[in-house]
Write a structure and sequence with these properties.
The chain is an all-alpha fold. The protein has one domain (8-72). 45% of the residues lie in helices and 0% in strands. The chain contains 3 helices and no strands.
Length: 76
């Protein structure tokens, strides 16, 4: 985080990385429903980079900041 702003590369990854497993496998992380992220929050996020991404995404959605990610979505 620089100057109180999240690193743009982290946001870019959230907007374009796909969920690798589970009910929403293949769905872009930013498109995961909030109740799914709340479930992870309650049960514990996975370890490693994916867990960090999901936890950050949870905070973004919790605070209504999804608009930060929409312009970064890969158009492919």
């Amino acid at each position: 985080m620089e100057n109180g702003q999240p690193d743009s590369s982290i946001l870019l990854e959230l907007a374009n990385t796909k969920m690798p497993f589970g009910k929403y496998a293949g769905r872009v992380l930013m498109d995961l429903p909030e109740p799914y992220l709340v479930w992870f929050y309650q049960q514990g996020f996975p370890k490693g980079k994916l867990g960090e991404q999901l936890q950050f995404l949870y905070e973004i959605k919790l605070n209504g900041l999804e608009g930060l990610l929409k312009p970064l979505r890969d158009k492919n």
